Amino acid sequence: MSIVITGASGKLGRFIINQLLQKVSSEQIIACVRRLESGKPYEEQGIIVRHCDYDQPESLEHAFAGASRLLLISSSHHDDTIRLRQHAHVIEAAKKSKVDHLLYTSFAFPEHGSVSPVHLHLATEHAIRTTGIPFTFLRNALYTDFVGALDINEAIKKGKLSIVPGDWKFNSVTRQDLAAVCAAVLSEPGHKNKIYELTASAPWTFEDLADALSSLSGKTISLQPDPEIRNWIYGFLSKIDTTSTSSDLERLLGRPVTTLKESVKPFISL
Ligand SMILES: NC(=O)c1ccc[n+]([C@@H]2O[C@H](COP(=O)([O-])OP(=O)(O)OC[C@H]3O[C@@H](n4cnc5c(N)ncnc54)[C@H](OP(=O)(O)O)[C@@H]3O)[C@@H](O)[C@H]2O)c1
Q1: Tens digit of pLDDT for each residue in 89-142?
Q2: How far does the centroid of ligand 1 lie from the alpha carbon of residue 203, in Å?
Q3: What is the best residue among 73, 104, 122, 147 to mutate for testing ligand 1's pocket, by most ligand atoms within 8 Å of CB?
Q4: Which of 266, 168, 261 minimizes the C-alpha distance to 223?
């Protein structure tokens, strides 16, 4: 069995490959990278590295040759129309390469969202279905990294976390938890034609975040609702489904998701 992974040089790709190495031998993994030099650390671990650029369709068929399982990690391009074209190149090449199983890192509950990235993810899922290749949609929740856009270090300094008022709830999780499940699904049988909503099993709230920051900093952090806040992140959060949850992630992980306190720790510069 050979497992081919695109976006292998990215943060999620690196976490997935680290987890995969605990489950399969390095010769079974093919890391696809846009710049071959970013694959050097993989080669040193005995992993095959191939060139793959979503914008260069001619690079893709060779990259995917012999793949039993191909994981398409969604493109990081900022323009969703371009991402759609890039993903179409990958999907077409997967079909030509006769890939046995195509897995895709989508976004959780995309039908409930109204921003262009969720339309892109749904469009990609539909495009994958046109191929007839058995698929798995790994619908990743929002990464908890988004807390980095909430001025949490300023909140610790002031003892107050300013938020836009509202009944906010978050199903976000860490990349590491998502990567662990992606690696498990890639290395096990039984996941063909399945859709997994990879969110926290229970949502967390801004009260929970204030508690986590208080515990991490040793200071009391209280919430300060402020309708005047101008922060782009709230516009985005209000147009995706951050509330719905599923037990898929914890079931596939076989353990609870990383706690909020542990998840926000890397974003605190005390
Ligand atoms: N769920 C969420 O909250 C969330 C948040 C942000 C992003 N995402 C999505 O999740 C994906 C993975 O996240 P991440 O943290 O690993 O992102 P990342 O660290 O930015 O990695 C993106 C990967 O995509 C590769 N890539 C970009 N354009 C490419 C192209 N034209 N051809 C081939 N490879 C290309 C990059 O290669 P290089 O190293 O050469 O640039 C890199 O390996 C992102 O790409 C994005 O679609 C999800």
Answers
A1: 999 999 999 999 999 999 999 999 999 999 999 999 999 999 999 999 999 999
A2: 25
A3: 73
A4: 168
